[in-house]
Amino acid sequence: MYGNYYNPYGATQQMQQRLANLQQQQQQMYQQPMPTMMPPAQPNAYQPVQQIKGRPVTSIEEARAAQVDLDGTSTYFPAPAEGKIYEKLIGMDGLPIFRVYQLQQDGGMQTPAYADNNTVLALQRRIEKLEEQIGGMTNDEHIPDDADGTAGRKSNGTNATVRRTKSANE
């Protein structure tokens, strides 16, 4: 009966034993040899994932009316029914910037269609025929109009200059 008495000013035997055990554990931790070399600092393994801000919309009016952050980051509004993506952001001048991206179907970049050799030859014959009808201007060099209003031509075959005057029909 005398062993289990209450001491209001001191700790009980159990509490004193726990305290002694904790002090002993701390001493053991501090007595362990510390590593002399620190491991090299590794680059930050945590890379923040950059997310795209936005939400689907049904029309351009809904995208234009949407509120966006004032920090200048882009907010995207896909409109699947229209095949478009709207981008809205606040520019450096404080004014909204609104861009529209449209989905291109296959065949957006068409390869040029080249004419076959027969078509080119037919066009060359037709041009030659038209030149003959105009007045034999094939393989001629044009000389600029003279001050008096006449035009001169120099034939490639000869060095003679042919002069002609403008008619009322020309």
What would you note in describing this structure?
With 170 residues, the chain is α+β, with helices and mostly antiparallel strands. It has helices at 13-31, 60-65, 117-134, and strands spanning 53-54, 75-79, 84-90, 96-102, 140-143, 151-155, 161-164. The longest helix has 19 residues, at 13-31.
Short description:
The chain has 170 residues and is α+β, with helices and mostly antiparallel strands. Helices cover 25% and strands 20% of the residues.
Key features?
alpha+beta, 3-stranded antiparallel beta sheet, disordered C terminus
Whole-number radius of gyration?
Answer: 47 Å
Spans of 5+ residues with little confidence (pLDDT < 50)?
158-170
What would the principal axes of the Cα set say about the shape? Answer: elongated
Count the helices. How many?
Answer: 3
Average predicted local confidence, pLDDT: 74
Give the strand content. 15-25%
Chart the SSEs and their pairings.
Elements (H helix, E strand, L loop, with lengths): L12 H19 L21 E2 L5 H6 L9 E5 L4 E7 L5 E7 L14 H18 L5 E4 L7 E5 L5 E4 L6
